[in-house]
Specification:
5 helices; 2 domains
């Protein structure tokens, strides 16, 4: 699915959206019945969300209030876009793929931790 996707799409975290748009396009333009089957011996990578709603982001941020370093890292990685009716936070574009791997792992752990805290607090 990811063949032919330019590096600019991966740098701006739009790879998944691009793949889903291509699937949608194939389904719409096909004259026959559509069936999508995803087969593999592995699940692939777990990507951090490229977009988080304002409300969810605020909940995650509040759950990290005791750890200022993690909270600041989360704020540094996402940028608020107020051009939507419901404001959204978008993952900032990356410059260095090697550095991104380290940042992505850290971000994934922080998001997981914040989500677990929110769940335990019933938010």
């Amino acid at each position: 699915m990811r063949w032919g996707i330019p590096s600019t799409a991966s740098n701006s975290h739009s790879t998944v959206d691009m793949c889903l748009q291509e699937l949608d396009s194939c389904c719409r333009l096909s004259m026959a019945t559509n069936c999508i089957v995803l087969l593999s011996h592995r699940y692939g990578s777990r990507l951090v969300p490229a977009c988080i709603s304002f409300r969810i982001f605020q909940l995650l941020e509040d759950c990290l209030s005791t750890n200022i370093e993690e909270k600041n890292f989360l704020i540094e990685m996402y940028q608020l876009d107020e051009n939507y009716l419901e404001h959204k936070y978008f993952l900032r574009p990356i410059d260095d793929n090697q550095q991104w791997t380290l940042l992505e792992n850290k971000l994934q752990l922080i998001l997981q931790k914040a989500a677990n805290i929110c769940y335990k607090q019933g938010k």
